[in-house]
Amino acid sequence: MTKEPKVSLRGLYKIFGPRAADVLTHVRNGTSKDDLLAKHAHVLGLQDINVDMQAGEITVVMGLSGSGKSTLIRHLNRLIDPTAGEIWVDGEDVMKLSENGLRDLRQGKMSMVFQKFALLPHRTVLQNAAMALAVRGVDEATRNAEATKWLARVGLQGYEDRYPAQLSGGMQQRVGIARALTANTDIMLMDEAFSALDPLIRTDMQNLLLELQDELQKTIIFITHDLDEALKLADHLVILKDGAVIQQGEPQGILMHPTDPYIEDFVSDINRARVLRVKSVMEPLSGSEFAGDVDIRDNLESLIARSGGDTTLHYRVLQGDTPVGELHMRDLVKALVPRLSSAGSEGENLR
Questions:
Q1: Which of 146, 152, 237, 306 might form a disulfide with 251, Cβ 3.0–4.6 angstroms?
Q2: For residue range 267-314, what is the model confidence (pLDDT) as tens digits?
Q3: What is the rounded CA–CA span in Å between residue 162 and residue 338?
């Protein structure tokens, strides 16, 4: 039985300009983004987007600046309305919601973490974290208790009475995450939430998000232009170019089997040993003698270190305590060699 997606986008188009509905026909007939701007003075934001986002998973949408990723995420809570197409959340057509229904969606089902933090400078850390519950009319004692709990979870216990200007960038973003968690929505929208942070703080925030996700199983839609970040966080990866989906799927599969020269190019320089997991290169279990056991989630870099580079070894793969396959070191070595790129250097700006 096919699982019903938590969020579903169907035939979604967005064209910016005064005659968007009129020029939509040109886009559907094959007019490119550049030609639409040159000939009709309209900007193509999204083109025929069809994506399912499953409950409890992190869907990462990535692409170059101008690819449409931030435009896409703002359609989910209708900060932007589409020129054409459907947006479904929990089986409900978002485009048919009344004003009150849309307000309930934004307050009760979706929270958002912004790139620029969007904290209110005149309110304390506690007040910022409790903001969503304050808007809903929750009493002060209840909302402060909930906000205090989540501030502690993101490492900000003791900072409740500080103001945003007294915090570092990484700490301010932790307040933004605590605010989204305090809202207690099923869906979290994260628009380039970590891209303004220094590399070490960014890695720390990624690890925090994955730690919280293991426990909470939220439906997270995460926007990024960074491929390493996308491969680390994504359960489902959607890659955009010029407003269209170029490839989507399980990120390990995209890395191993790119379907477009554009994608081949920008995955070619990735440290595959660090990114690829055992599950991507293992084979069905058939042997009985192994050099040892490895976890299905281990990256290939750890296995290379463990094997000492001996390509004659093979290992049994476990998921928990259950044997699920085997991995030959010779197959691991083959997986480290990317397919030859047939594209130019378009992907360089994604790294």
A1: 237
A2: 877 888 888 889 889 999 887 889 999 999 888 989 999 998 889 999
A3: 49
Tell the residue number behind the tokens 């193509």, with chain if given. Answer: 44
Expressed in angstroms, the distance from the first to the final Cα of the chain is: 38
Dihedral sign, Cα of residue 334, residue 335, residue 341, residue 342: positive
- pTM of this structure: 0.85
Q: Two tokens at 248?
A: 């989507």
Comparing CA positions, the residue from 151, 153, 177 lying closest to residue 162 is 151
Q: Sort strands 293-295 and 322-328 into parallel, antiparallel or unpaired.
A: unpaired
304, 276 Cβ separation under 8 angstroms: no
**Coil, helix or strand at residue 156:** coil
Q: With beta carbons less than 8 A apart as the criterion, state whether 176 and 208 touch.
A: no
Rounded CA Rg of the chain:
22
> Please, are residues 333 and 312 in contact by the beta-carbon 8 Å criterion?
no
Question: If we measure between CA atoms, which residue out of 314, 308, 312 comes closest to residue 292?
Answer: 314
